[in-house]
UniProtKB/TrEMBL annotation:
Domain N-acetyltransferase: 9-160
Key words, A-Z: Acyltransferase, Transferase
Superkingdom in the source lineage: Bacteria
Enzyme Commission number(s) of this protein: 2.3.-.-
InterPro entries: Acyl_CoA_acyltransferase (IPR016181), GNAT_dom (IPR000182)
SUPFAM superfamilies, sorted: Acyl-CoA N-acyltransferases (Nat) (SSF55729)
Gene3D superfamilies: 3.40.630.30
MF (Gene Ontology): acyltransferase activity
Protein name: GNAT family N-acetyltransferase
Amino acid sequence: MENVAGLEISLRPLTMNDFPEVAKWSQDHLFCQANEWTTNRDANELLAWWERCVENDSPTFLRLGIEYSGRLIGYIDLADQTDTSTELGIAIGESSLWQQGIGTKAAQLAITYASKRFRIHHVTAETNLENLRAQKMLEKLGFEIVSQNGSTLFFRKTIV
């Protein structure tokens, strides 16, 4: 658990009870644009997607909820896991909470978790060239740009 501006941040398993918050995110134009979601997604399609997220049993993919001040505000992905590496993904569902350090703290919690639980030594991430917030966050966390393919930047961090 981390503290940001006096409020607690934690990572936890997703539940179906989180769905009302997720449904709100689908109404946030800035969130949808940043995460390549369709604004105002069909409620049944969104619910089916969330059920798949909650019931996920993939050995190479883990999605955890980001809880902030007692409520779900986003999620962290640890994807494409191997014996030594994983890819980090993050989405803060409420754009009003962006640029407050919450994503950075949540991402650091996820990196620490991956390192301890899965003995990961390398974490990768990718973001669009235009997503300056994500680039700044990754740089704060010690990631370095390792390549670029078109408008996508690829980052890597070695955990010691």
